[in-house]
Amino acid sequence: MEHTDNSENFVRHLTEHQNRIYGYVFSLVGDHSRAADVVQETNLVLWRKIGEFKPGKQFLPWAFAIARFQVLAHLRDHKRDRLLLDTNLTETLSTEAESHAEQIDIVREALRPCLKLLTRTNRELVEHRYFQAMSVDDVAESVDRTPGAVKVALLRIRRQLADCVQQRMTAEV
Question: 1-104 adopts what CATH topology?
Answer without folding.
Answer: Rna Polymerase Sigma Factor; Chain: A (1.10.1740)
